[in-house]
Amino acid sequence: MGMSEEGNVDPRVQRTRRDVVDAATALFKSEGWEALTHAEVARRAGYSKATVYAHWPTRLDLVRASVGQICGTTEHAQPTGDLRADLVRELLDFAGDLSQGHLTRVLGGVFERAGSDPAVDEMRQQLYAEGSRSLEAILSAHLPKESVEPCVALLTGGVLVRVALQASPATREFVEDLVERVLASAGR
Q1: How far apart are CA 114 and CA 157, in angstroms?
Q2: Which of 39, 70, 101 is the last residue of a domain?
Q3: CA–CA distance, 85 with 140 (Å, rounded to integer)
Q4: Which residues bind DNA (predicted)?
Q5: CA distances in angstroms from 107 to 15, 111, 121, 131, listed in the order given
Q6: Which of 45, 79, 81, 98 can pair with 163 through a Cys bridge, CB separation 3.0 to 4.6 Å?
Q7: Distance separating alpha carbons of residues 33 and 16, to the nearest angstrom
Q8: What CATH number does the domain containing 13 carry?
Q9: Is the pTM of this model over 0.90?
């Protein structure tokens, strides 16, 4: 819904949408895709299932709204210009989000369903684009364009593997070493 359309919507409908998406996002982040049901979202938001179904007819609609909220509320610190320090800060933040579990649950549900529906693939791309935006900006200020995407993939992949697959902490020492290795591969 565009901004001009949003301005024409009854404030009660706006409040309902906000409350339901907030409840759906909290549930999605805390318990994952399978827990995200119309009944549970309605219960947590304080609305009827019929109201939730009226605005979000499928579970995928609820997930899409949650992913949109997650991406729309993600904040990144402003780069300082110190390439290594900025990368380490962003990667430690990413590792923290993974370690807390909510990002792992969100990504896990999307990964599990990848290729099953174009909307899921769109969400996967949206999550990656939002999650990597700050790393891309940091690297773009210091590296040739053709080096940016491979470095983003190596950096995010290294942290993702460490935390989500190896179940090990991405300590500052680990992240600093990863940054040095990736930047060395890019000639920095």
Answers
A1: 18
A2: 70
A3: 15
A4: 37-56
A5: 28, 6, 12, 11
A6: 98
A7: 21
A8: 1.10.357.10
A9: no
